[in-house]
Specification:
This protein is of the alpha+beta class and 546 residues long.
């Protein structure tokens, strides 16, 4: 499930003015922050290998850092282990490494650690989970405080991917025989704000790293990660009782279940995440007809989906494919209402008729072959919010004379059918990525698709268009943000005029927080970071005052 908060609920749940807590700090520090979940899968073991995504514990994200941190709401680039970067030419990216940074064992952090990290995951490519080496020719330390990345092709697009790789110490990892099997379980050495204190399958405790390069900004003594041991209902009760300081879970009626239990301290903020769209199988009639697809853009009652199916937590999505308002900087000028399409069934009716899709005497909409248009809308039964949304959209389609049946299936079968093209219409998620090349390229690039019956990597609607591919190539190889914006403008136009998919709502970045112990959490009035931007959060939290 994926969803966000309407303005009325947002103001009720997250006022933007954080009340002081009852656990008063006497030393200017927060005793601890509790997170829900420890990671590591169903049988977690002590594993802090930052390259083993499936089995690492959540605490790993507090031990290791990247060169820059990309804030996930606005996509702002924040200098972190690197203090700056520059492009020597369109294929050469140079980072200046921050002075005075230490690993938590006291050894100095240098550019050699950066070069070692990237070259290690090149040698052991199963560790390259971010897919950075297909973009790189080489990574070299060109001094203690400078590292140079040589790209395979020109373009600034790889920047965000490079900055998703967490850096490890050469003096530790160079002695590891097989880093693909290294759990890094004992005293993991990182540059991050926390170091591991203890582990058991029920709780991981990390403590403040006194050697942290910006330790003066970190006012949290410990971060606790507590295992999710119950059902979602039990976890909601724990949240309501204040057992977690923050969480990122779906809570039905969050106002009643969470906020109202302690309005002074319990808040939430559901910022927009991925784009939730109607996917149409573009290899089938009538979906292969752009006129039919354009007509449907005004057929869907997105506001009702947001209000009823998504419980008022989300906002309607823009047809541009951008996640707004966070990505407003990429929105081409002159686009009305941010590219959002209103519910206008009369306009949809008119457009379908003008496109040659007339009705028969029984009010059934006919295809170009003269037969009633009939198809299924596939939806996973377990995702109750998706089912409710699909029911609204099916009703909208039926009102136009289309014969549409809701086809309920398991989540596993649903995802398989979407990948292999075994569907007529269904929901799909895309975008929301700070790398625009990935955000548009994954759902629209022909390289990510496949014939029906074969698995599509990412382009599951089977959109194949030379102009789109050319624009994606321009975006990938753009040497400046200005050139990137020009390519994005072209892709936005494709989304609006060719309608390869129809965005309906923005999935939410679930984020609840408790101000009993700590204040300074991001919210709608102070969206300095996303709820999951933990490294940024830890430098902003301050103890609640009495």
């Amino acid at each position: 499930m994926a969803t966000l908060a309407s303005s009325s609920l947002l103001l009720a749940g997250c006022t933007g003015t954080e009340e002081s807590g009852d656990n008063v700090s006497t030393d200017g520090m927060i005793s601890h922050i509790s997170y829900a979940g420890i990671g590591g899968g169903s049988a977690p073991q002590a594993n802090y290998n930052p390259f083993l995504d499936a089995s690492q514990l959540v605490a790993t994200n507090f031990v290791y850092e990247t060169l820059y941190v990309i804030e996930q709401n606005s996509c702002k680039e924040i200098p972190w282990l690197a203090k700056s970067y520059s492009w020597q030419d369109s294929k050469t990216l140079v980072f200046d490494i921050r002075d005075g940074v230490q690993w938590n064992d006291g050894q100095a952090f240098t550019a050699k650690d950066v070069a070692f990290t990237f070259n290690m995951i090149k040698k052991h490519n199963v560790l390259d989970t971010k897919g950075v080496w297909p973009l790189l020719d080489s990574v070299k330390a060109t001094g203690d405080n400078q590292v140079t990345f040589s790209l395979k092709e020109p373009g600034v697009s790889p920047f965000t991917i490079i900055n998703s790789v967490r850096i490890v110490p050469e003096h530790i990892w160079s002695k590891v025989k097989d880093p693909t099997k290294f759990a890094n379980a004992k005293n993991p050495v990182g540059t991050g704000p926390m170091r591991v204190k203890s582990f058991n399958p029920q709780q991981v405790v990390t403590e403040r790293n006194p050697r942290y390069w910006q330790a003066d900004k970190v006012k949290v003594k410990q971060v606790w990660f507590k295992a999710n041991t119950g059902t979602p209902e039990i976890e909601q009760l724990k949240m309501g009782r204040g057992e977690y300081d923050t969480n990122g879970m779906f809570i039905p009626n969050v106002q009643k279940s969470y906020v109202d239990r302690d309005p002074k301290h319990h808040h939430y903020w559901y910022a927009p995440g991925m784009v939730m769209s109607v996917y149409m199988n573009l290899t089938k009639a009538p979906f292969e007809d752009v006129a039919f697809r354009r007509a449907l853009t005004s057929a869907f009652d997105r506001a009702t989906v947001a209000r009823k199916a998504q419980l008022g937590y989300v906002k309607t999505a823009s047809q541009t494919g951008l996640v707004l308002p966070g990505q407003s900087d990429w929105l081409p000028p002159g686009i009305k209402d941010g590219g959002r399409v209103g519910f206008d069934p009369k306009a949809a009716e008119k457009a379908l008729t003008e496109a040659g899709y007339k009705k028969d005497s029984q009010g059934r909409r006919l295809g170009k072959d003269g037969k009633p248009i009939s198809f299924k809308f596939k939806v996973p039964t377990a995702y109750t919010d998706w089912v409710a949304a699909a029911e609204i959209l099916v009703k909208n389609l039926k009102a136009l004379g289309l014969q549409v049946e809701l086809d309920r299936t398991s989540p596993e079968a649903h995802d398989q059918d979407r990948a292999y093209g075994r569907y007529d219409m269904m929901f799909g998620a895309h975008g929301g990525d700070c790398n625009m090349s990935k955000g548009f390229g994954d759902p629209l690039g022909s390289a990510g698709t496949a014939p029906i019956g074969k698995r599509a990597f990412s382009n599951e609607v089977r959109w194949k268009d030379k102009k789109t591919d050319d624009l994606l190539a321009d975006l990938r190889t753009a040497s400046s943000k200005k050139d990137q914006k020009k390519a994005v403008a072209g892709l936005v136009e494709i989304m609006q005029t060719e309608v390869p998919m129809i965005p309906i709502w923005y999935g939410a970045r679930w984020f609840q927080y408790d101000t009993t112990r700590a204040v300074g959490w991001p919210n709608a009035k102070n969206p300095y970071a996303a709820g999951g931007d933990n490294l940024i959060l830890l430098t902003h939290l301050r103890p609640a005052k009495g």
